[in-house]
Write a structure and sequence with these properties.
The chain is built from eleven helices and 15 strands. By secondary structure, it is of the alpha+beta class. Helix 1 packs antiparallel against helix 2 and helix 4 crosses helix 11.
């Protein structure tokens, strides 16, 4: 959530910065500013009424002790109390309306963020093949490690079903990623619930803007998480931490659930855009002074997985018109997919500054006693299914077998290759 004081002091500046996202927020900001002015005027009247009531109450007490009839004054105060109830209802309703509108405003892009995505660098060598590399969904079917047909019978389209060595490879990737982040990067592993309350989805920025993208249980009003970022960020909801407790670094493997309502017809083949997918998430909660450094560190930690797996990738700095709702600055990691002959995103690494912290009221106290909102950062570390697909394509052989990256072999019960059932090589 943005700071309402920024809108009060410099609404035109906020409108200009938000316009970098490719959308005109002038009407919405104007509406918020108008409601805020009304709210503050009504709040002032309510406070004046309460002061008057306190003063008159003291006066009534004094008159009663003197034996003076106070019935007329009490009758007048009853009318004042009715006015107080009316104005309080108005204050509360206006405040709720302001909050609803504020929750729909995205984060302000950092000053360094410009329009249009920029390639920062490419890492690793694209392999050369003397055969036509199959896309992972075709190779996976031949290897009998992916079965989308059975998944469709069970759940419909865009759900994965991994079999045998495919399931083992997915599990190996999850364990490998977690081990690296825990043992080498100092993260605390969390196993969070997959169902969360509405306020948790609001806190991380999924609701109300993207409520149509979520799976919600009708009876209980709980939402299936679209990413582990949601429960991890909300772990510090309504807390005041000490600055020396920060940073808090959480990692979690979860399945993630997204309706993908706005992407109908896009990437319907394979493991790229599914309604259910596995992901290892990284969340860093830190001070405002340290968030820029933490962002660079978070990016390097996500890159480490790709380097260890020897997958060719590139780093993009996202433009202001392509960033996520809660992000102030984002780097994407994209892996080269030789079967599809295109780059595919496997991680978004974002600094949200104090945007999420304001929504969940997460703060910290400095050594000097000052209380500030925390800064939150998140990154996929990484999207497991997409890395599965990248391995199937990048490590494919001419016999349509798949070599196992060396760092994964201990997690694959020593297997060095996934062979097609009819393979003799």
């Amino acid at each position: 959530m943005l700071d309402i004081n920024e809108i009060r002091k410099n609404s035109s500046g906020v409108i200009t910065i938000l316009a970098k996202r490719g959308e005109d927020f002038s009407d919405k900001i104007g509406q918020i500013k108008k409601m805020d002015s009304l709210w503050r005027s009504d709040l002032l009247e309510m406070e004046e009424i309460r002061r008057e009531k306190n003063t008159v109450s003291e006066e009534i007490g004094k008159l009663k002790r003197e034996g003076t009839d106070t019935s007329e004054i009490i009758a007048q105060m009853q009318e004042v109390s009715l006015r107080e109830k009316e104005i309080k209802k108005k204050v509360d309703e206006t405040r709720a309306a302001i909050d609803r509108e504020m929750l729909m405003l995205p984060n302000l892009p950092e000053d360094s963020v410009t329009a249009g995505n920029k390639i920062v660098r490419e890492e690793g060598e694209k392999k050369k093949y003397d055969f036509e590399v199959l896309p992972h969904w075709e190779a996976g079917k031949i290897l009998k490690i992916i079965d989308f047909e059975k998944a469709a019978v069970l759940s419909g389209s865009q759900f994965p079903l991994l079999c045998g060595e495919g399931a083992l490879l997915e599990r190996a990737l999850i364990s490998f990623m977690l081990d690296v982040h825990i043992e080498q990067h100092g993260y605390l592993e969390i196993m969070p619930p997959y169902l969360v309350r509405e306020e948790s989805m609001i806190g991380s920025g999924q609701f109300p803007k993207f409520s149509e993208e979520s799976y919600v249980t009708v009876k209980d009003g709980l939402s299936l998480i679209p990413t582990a970022e949601v429960p991890l960020v909300n772990m510090v909801r309504e807390t005041i931490l000490s600055a020396d407790e920060l940073p808090l670094k959480y990692t979690a493997f979860t399945s993630c659930f997204r309706r993908e309502a706005g992407s109908y017809g896009q990437d319907t083949k394979g493991l790229i855009r599914n309604h259910q997918f596995n992901k290892v998430e990284l969340v860093n909660i830190t001070t405002r002074e340290d968030s820029s450094r933490a962002h660079s560190e978070l990016l390097a930690e996500s890159e480490k997985i790709l380097k260890l797996l020897q997958l060719p990738y590139r780093v993009l700095e996202l433009g202001s018109d392509d960033m996520g709702f809660a992000a102030a600055k984002t780097y994407d990691l994209e892996v080269w997919m030789p079967g599809e002959k295109k780059w595919r995103e496997v991680s978004s690494c974002s600094n949200c500054l104090d945007f999420q912290a304001r929504r969940i009221n997460a703060r910290y106290r400095t050594a000097e006693g000052e209380i500030n909102y925390a800064h939150t950062l998140n990154s996929s570390g990484l999207a497991v299914g997409r890395i599965f697909a990248a391995i199937v394509e990048n490590f494919q052989t001419g016999e349509i077998n798949v070599k196992i990256p060396e760092v994964l072999q201990p997690y694959m019960k020593g297997r060095k290759i996934i062979k097609r059932p009819d393979s003799t090589g």
